Amino acid sequence: RIAGVDVGSRYLTWAVADEAGQAESRVFAAGGIAGARHAAGGPGRLARWLPLAIDEVAVADVLQNLHARPATLPQTEDELVIVQAAVRHQLALAGEAEGAGEQLEGVDLLIGSGRSLAAAPRPSQAAQMLLDGVRPLGVTQLALDTSGVLPPLGALDDSEIAEGMGVLRDDLLVPLGTSLVCRGGRFGQVVMRVTVHRAGWPVIGPLDLRTGQVQIIPLARGHEAELEIELGIGVSLGGPRRVRRVMAGATGGVVGLVLDARGVPLSLPRRSDDRRAVLAGWRDLFGREPAVPAIEPSLVGSR
Predict the structure, then answer these.
(1) Distance CA 252, CA 229 (A)
(2) Helices 77-96, 56-68: inter-axial angle, 10-degree rounding
């Protein structure tokens, strides 16, 4: 199954298609970045997603400017932080809509489109926006539609979407890598133990990830790895039945392999200082070059 999400300044579109030709799309008329100013909670709720201390008035100004001038690009670090937080926020809201979240579960490939995703300063920032907003359970390949092929699919009938998705060949996509996202588990508990096997390379792991942790492992474009996953009690990858041991394949990209134990949906601390510290930790981690990890990954943020 392939899913694509296009986040514009005013509209948000997603489309899902499978190999059997079944497809569905949905357009959120106020789901774009600028639409966050009228979403539930407005700029105040969006400010909760910011790793920096920025007041609601500044957030509202940036969103209003995007609404009036959709082609505007962020000019400052604060504006970039606000725009990227709005992408994550609007994707999460779309997932909360009736039936939308279920349609985006269990996809094998998730494609991000729209200027804020495809033209992010770092591909890892685009990967974080997709993961934070959509929270794709299980093992999912991530890619960017840098050619802008995906947006017109929202104008097609459902019967034509599968054929339209077929034009998204490898030469039109930038592979970000593979994500492994789990749900469940208690605070402080080891939610998954992952061992990464790559032909011709030393085995990485086993890596113990606790609730709230995220780890990025380098896995170059065109490289493949086999993941041996052991899940903790009450932890799921979104399958139809709960299993404790899973074997899965992963394909590399410009970001690599992302092991994400932050849960579904994301949960943040209530205190603003603690919340910003956790968000800043996640942002810094996705902004760093991935390195081969030690056996025990460091705690990035806990809920």
Answers:
(1) 17
(2) 80
Neighbours of 208 (CB within 10 A): 17
Whether the Cβ atoms of residue 90 and residue 14 lie closer than 8 Å to each other: no
Q: What distance in Å separates the CA atoms of residue 118 and residue 127, rounded to the nearest whole number? A: 10
Main-chain dihedrals φ then ψ at residue 10, nearest 5 degrees: -120, -30
Strand partners, 100: none
Question: pLDDT of 17-39, one tens digit each?
Answer: 877 767 787 888 878 888 888 77
- Tokens representing 69 are 């001038």
What SS3 state is found at 174? strand
With b for 16 or more beta-carbon neighbours within 10 A and e for fewer, the 252-268 pattern comes to: bbbbbbbbbbbbbebeb
For residue range 246-262, list pLDDT tens digits in order.
999 999 999 999 999 99
Q: Collect contacts of 27-33 with beta carbons under 8 A, ≥24 apart.
A: 27/154, 28/90, 28/94, 28/97, 31/7, 31/90, 31/93, 31/94, 32/7, 32/8, 32/90, 33/7, 33/8, 33/9, 33/63, 33/66, 33/83, 33/86, 33/87, 33/90, 33/116
- Read off the pLDDT of residues 173-225 as tens digits, 9 standing for 90 and up: 889 999 999 998 888 789 999 999 998 889 998 999 999 999 999 999 989 99
Q: At what angle do helices 123-134 and 77-96 cross, to 10 degrees?
A: 30
For the segment 68-99, what is each residue's pLDDT rounded down to a tens digit? 888 888 889 999 999 999 999 999 888 887 56
> Could you tell me the sign of the dihedral formed by the alpha carbons of 45, 49, 54, 60, in that order?
negative
Continuous H helices in the chain: 42-47, 56-68, 77-96, 100-103, 115-118, 123-134, 158-165, 272-287
